[in-house]
Amino acid sequence: MPPAPAITDIEQLKGHPAIAKLLAWKPAVVEAARFDHDEMTIYVERSSIGEACTLLRDNPECAFNFLADVTCVDWYPREPRFEVVYHLLSIPKKERVRLKVRLDSGSPTLDSVTPVWPGANYFEREVFDLFGVRFTGHPYLRRIQMPEDWEGHPLRKDYPVEGYR
Amino acid sequence: MILNMGPQHPSTHGVLRVILEIDGENVVRIMPDIGYLHTGIEKTCEAKFYQQVVPLTDRIDYLCPLTNNLCYALAVEKLLGLEIPPKAQWLRVLLNELTRINSHLVWLGTHALDIGAMTVFLYCFREREDILRLFEMVSGQRMMTSYFRVGGLALEPPLGFFEKVREFASRFPAKVDEYENLLTGNPIWGMRTKGVARITAEDALALGVSGPTLRGSGVDFDLRRDMPYSGYDNFKFAVPIATEGDVFARYICRVQELRESNAIVQQALDGMPEGPIKADAPKVVLPDREKMKTQMEALIYHFKIITEGFAVPEGEVYQAVESPRGEMGYYVVSDGTAKPYRLHMRAACLANLQALPTMCEGRLIADVVAAIGSIDIVLGEIDR
């Protein structure tokens, strides 16, 4: 059975509580949305990620009270190059939503969500370490997996698999 | 005083380094330092075909390789839209619960050893050996099983396998009683664990803690029951929770889980459906050896899968399963080729480790050892 095609029209996806709440708060926050493989992805405007996360966590209809994961995808050489990906889980509603923030290669910087979820700390450090994306407001943005004096960010697509020789 | 604990300290379960700022025997500040086991698996995966990633997933969390196999297989199957036959699903559940028992036994043994109860370690490894023999029987390997494949299982289980599992499952509850006799009512165990390394439900949720560590703080959430995958909705089991949020609460949760997992194994054995163990998808699943030698088409598919892999349609998927340590998630991004564009593993231990400062600051150094044991870390998963 082939999977159902993806839905990308925001008008059709408005019924989803997360999108509805974000649109009601500030329509410009939702840049795009996509429903595919039974998973909802919302592209969030870069400067509002912290506030959007607070809203989704505290609103009783969304109740995304658990930050499962933060990671990043490098679309080199395409621009905007980086997509920072947040996986949110609502334990009371048993639902997931994926937030994405697009960043261009010029200044891959965005606000940290550690004030909203302290648990984002290690995940953001990992993204910083392996992708070179900077999180402003992070309490301790240092390399976590690679040695302190490592050069480059290994998970970037222009970093060779066998490393620099 | 700054004290360095690890990375070669036996109670840090591998290569965890903990920097302790201490005042006498009291811990003022605690900082975990990780990365000693970083192998760049995520980067390696980007250079492999989808089927070549399966053996790599074993090496992430080496105490529950089959859970990793399952999570990866489910994620790719979701992208491909594959339908998995019931027998394969039930076998996956059965082996997953054996893996959980295996992992919890290692945890219980080493945790008790850290705190000073030597006997439990020997008892636990006695039963663990039986489970490893079962894994060897079914997959040929004791630890790095690679038994689940995208689209089903690698092989039919051998003759006599189910009888061996049934025999194990019937005597295992008595063994759990043995462990509990040694520990649960033991006043020394109680003094080392009760009220130690407490964490509240709010703190645990904010820090992204999951699995038995979260349930020990009173949050009733288990992915197997609440967001079922691989046919878990066909099984009846209780989710043990405790409300104290201390080392003892986490111990009680995991020991009860041993019994529940054993009950799931028995249900899986009783209701094991008949049928194929691989999905009907010739372009993805390798053909049987028989067919390959007699049918031209099967030979071509075999050759194509081995040499070129199989293309996965463009898209992205996040699949989470309940590993023995918490929420294990695989995030797969495909660009339509035969190699994953990006593969990210959400490590339950990485998030759980962040709770260590909350648990330990202001307490004694000896409690740090108990706390590290109680969150059941596996450095392979944390560092990847």
Low-confidence stretches of chain A: none
CATH level 1 class label of chain B: Mainly Alpha
Average residue pLDDT of chain B: 90
Structural class estimated from helices and strands of chain B: mainly alpha
CATH topology grouping of the domain at 10-108 in chain A: Beta Polymerase, domain 2
Structure description:
The complex is a heterodimer of chains A (165) and B (384). By secondary structure, chain A is of the alpha/beta class. Chain A has a domain of 99 residues: Beta Polymerase, domain 2. In chain A, 21% of the residues lie in helices and 28% in strands. Chain A contains 4 helices and 7 strands, in the order H-H-E-E-H-E-E-E-E-H-E. In chain A, the strands form 2 sheets. Chain A has a 5-stranded mixed sheet with strand order 1-2-5-4-3. A two-stranded parallel sheet of chain A has the order 6-7. The termini of chain A are far apart. Chain B has 384 residues and is mainly alpha-helical. Chain B is 51% helix and 12% strand. Chain B has 17 helices and 8 strands. In chain B, the strands form 3 sheets. Chain B has a 3-stranded antiparallel sheet with strand order 1-2-3. In chain B, a hairpin with a 2-residue loop joins strand 2 and strand 3. In chain B, helix 6 packs antiparallel against helix 11. Chain B is globular and about 75 Å long. The relative contact order of chain B is 0.20. The model of chain B has no long low-confidence stretch (mean pLDDT 90). Chains A and B meet through strand 3, strand 4 and helix 4 of A and helix 1, strand 6, strand 7, strand 8 and helix 14 of B.
